[in-house]
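Handout, section B. The chain below has 636 residues.
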Amino acid sequence: MAQEEDIFSEQMNAADYNDESIVHLEDMEHIRLRPGMYIGKLGDGSSHDDGIYVLIKEVIDNSIDEFTSGFGKKVELKINFAERRVSIRDYGRGIPLGKLVEAVSKLNTGAKYDSKVFQKSVGLNGVGTKAVNALSSYFKVEAYREGKKRCAEFAEGQLTADSGIVAAEGAESGTMVEFIPDAKLFGNYHFISEYVERRIWNYAYLNRGLTLYYNDKRYYSKNGLLDLLEHNLSSEPLYPVIHIKEGDFEAAFTHINGQSNDYYYSFVNGQHTTEGGTHQSAFREAYARVVKEFIKKDYAPEVIRGGLVCALCVRIQEPVFEAQTKTKLGSTHMAPPDKDGNYDSPLLKTYILDILRNHLDNYLHIHAETADALLGKINANEKERKEIAGIKKVAREAGKKASLNNRKLRDCHVHYNTNHARRLESTIFITEGDSASGSITKSRDVDTQAVFSLRGKPKNTYSIAKVDVYKNDELNLLHNALDIDESLDNLRYNNVVIATDADVDGMHIRLLLLTFFLRFYPELISTGHVYILQTPLFRVRNKQKTTYCYSDEERIAAINATPAAEITRFKGLGEISPEEFKNFIGKDMRLDPVLLHKDFDIPKVLGFYMGENTPERREFIMKNLRVEDDESIVVA
């Protein structure tokens, strides 16, 4: 019977697949139907790699390409947060007026296919601005050239108005793009200013001589990657930052204490390659090799690089990225092959190795104090490696065995360190206790959402050594689940979400987990992978309507809008049924990103809040308490 059903099913499928099944989509329709192919993921703005920020990046990239080609030294970005309207104006050559509409609405149309016009640009496939157009409810482009201008407006990628070419006396040449991301696609999205500002700073660091304005605030960098590194270091450097520039290569790097892995801010043609690629691999290999030859000791590469923080940028012709979002470089040479498939340009790894051999080796011979500090850090890394080698092996094996049949980790099928189409959705919820994890486990998406259940409060890791992490079963299981011990490249989940109760104990657990990450894996936070899950505090409902409220303001508004309302106060995650919980971890999930500002002093902050200075901390708390009208005490 089953075989007969299978045959029948196959016959039905064959019958359903006919001429009418072949559908042709216009360019804009295809982008709207498959946005992930063009901007990665949609998101609501909570994550730094959500689509609304990619839209901004795609437009600014075009302005940057104008600047690097020698045209226009200023870019202006304005965001109206209330209207969610973005405006970007550059002062380059301006899009050729006769092809303005095609340039922003027809795929495979653009000047960047002509390498004579754009030698080392980021956008090479004629897609970026078209994707912005297609994914916006409103899109306007205005180009100014030689005293003339043309303006075109679109809705969901479809042309709604075209001024034609008209006079524009006195207007500076360039392009202005204005758009509103489509709420039908992105949902109830919001812009987080810190994410935008971080991107603007990166543009400034990578393009010396370019001035950017973000909502009228000026951004400018005099020293490039040296500024980037000095502005983003979480601890004092062990020696002055080494800054190397030659041709199409630039790097700034140093070592810091309290970090066992190496960390990179890497870029290609101004594009932030958050997932690294061949240029980053080439630098890591070359750096370890040059230093090893200098110190004349046979240390492992990871020992030499332990604690290294580096900002790296290369500029190459026609780079090949592994996705449209351009977060990982795939090119192996400085330029593409010729028409016969032969490479005239050097390998990336050869090019970078030669530069480091020349500059870094000379620098260390000249600056003896830096060389001594570097050697001291490497020796300390080797000592730590030997101390934890035995316990690390035992702990890792125990972690692997526990992960196979440990009920504390309910894993998902799709992981971040794979090439799966949904890898950016991969999420792990870190919960307190079985009660909370039970509700999440029953309502989660088993493909992309995993759950790790804590046993009460984890250990305060502020003053412990790395070896103690491996000795602690729970912390060992946690970093094994994330797979971040050797490198962030192995991270299994794009989103690490702390899901605790909104009470004193829940807040304490959040602080303990954040302390653990900041002490041993700060790059997990600095790269934007850690979030706090917001769950509703109240449920307001009657027979016709149910509203979940995340604050007192939302509760009051819901009560006023709901006659004869029944009000429920959720005291913990475990009180929320799985049927309700699925509403809070699906497409409407509210996440608060954990952000590190560039002036955030990690050792100082952790020392104050998690150290042994109890009297000082108690005095601070008492001075900053306030009493609400309902006599509930909250921190000011």
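Note. Residues 215 and 459 are 43 Å apart (CA to CA). Compare this with the example in section A.
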